[in-house]
Structure formats: C-alpha cells, structure tokens
Amino acid sequence: MSKLFFAVLAVLGVLLLPASASVGEDGLHKEPWFNMTFRDIGEDIATAKAEGKRLAIIFEQRGCIYCREMHEKLLSDPEVRDYIQANFMVVQYNMFGDEEVTDLDGEKLTEKTAARKWGYVFTPTIVFLPEEATDAPVNRAAVATMPGAFGKWTFLNMFRWVHEKGYEGDEHFQVYHARIIKELRDAGRLDAEE
C-alpha cells in the first residue's frame, strides 16, 4: 500500500510541475523560449536588436536551487514570462560549462572561463547587454547585472528598467523599483506586505 501511495505522489508531482521546469542534459532548467546561439555576444546583440529586443545572458549551474526557483516561480509566471519574451532575447550560459563563447573584445573562452573573466560567481546571474556591441568585455559593456534570485516584482522591474533604459537616466533602479511598487499598491495590485 505504501509503495502505491508513493508512486501516485511521484506521478502527481511530475504532472503538477510547471511546463518551464524541464531540465536539460546539462542539468540546467530550460525554457522553450530561451535562444540557442553560437554564443558570439556581438552577433547575439545584433540579432536581438534586429528583433527589436535586448540581449540578456543568464548564468546558471547544475543543482542551483535558486535557479530552479527562478524557473518555477518567476519564469513560469505569465506576466513575467510574456514581458521578457516580448522584449528580450535570452541566452542561457552554464557557469561551469565548456561551450565556446566569443566575448565582445574578440577573445574566445569557454562558459566557465568567461564567468571567471567577467567576475560572475553567483547563480542565477542575469547580465543585460547594450543595444550596440562594443569592444569592451561583457562585464564592462553590461548596462546592468542582477546577481541572485529575487521576488517577482524586483525581478520583473529590473527587466522593465533595462528595457526603458533607466540606466541612462537619473532614477536609480532602487528608486524606480520603489516607485513601481507604490503604484502597484495604490492600484490595489499588491498587499502592504509585498
């Protein structure tokens, strides 16, 4: 009886997982709308721009509980997912991977040596690239970087702030985020605790 009970629980657990919770052979959680590229960052910036989008690189690693949470709670949320899909070309990198990457300065690296070169040590880390390629390494060319996992509104507002080019203005992200949260509360979309 107990074996049947646990078998039913296991099947239900698999069936109830969000569609975005699939895991690839590399152990990373996958979204069907992530872009597969040759990881030439200059080319990826140009491709994103041609599609009317911005390039965002997400560094993840096998077994990362924060990455899993990002996929299961944030990237599966229709409001978050739809906004990102409409405005960003997202390319996933494995923090310890061996796939070849071409940095904006032309250097050829592996994913893991790129992460070291650019100083990214947390997963997930999301790197937002400029609209035009430069010859500076990614970490210096990036317009914003989001290290770690956050709640829905911080996560989504960072994507909005980058899309709206908030980094070019005087409103720091934290001020922008606080303003948006207040607007959401005033509109009745958030509780006082959120």
UniProtKB/TrEMBL annotation:
CDD domains: SoxW (cd02951). The keyword Signal applies. Keywords: Signal. InterPro entries: SoxW (IPR041737), Thioredoxin-like_fold (IPR012336), Thioredoxin-like_sf (IPR036249). The keyword Signal applies. Residues 48-132 form the Thioredoxin-like fold domain. Residues 1-21 form the signal peptide. This is Thioredoxin-related protein. It comes from Pseudaminobacter salicylatoxidans.
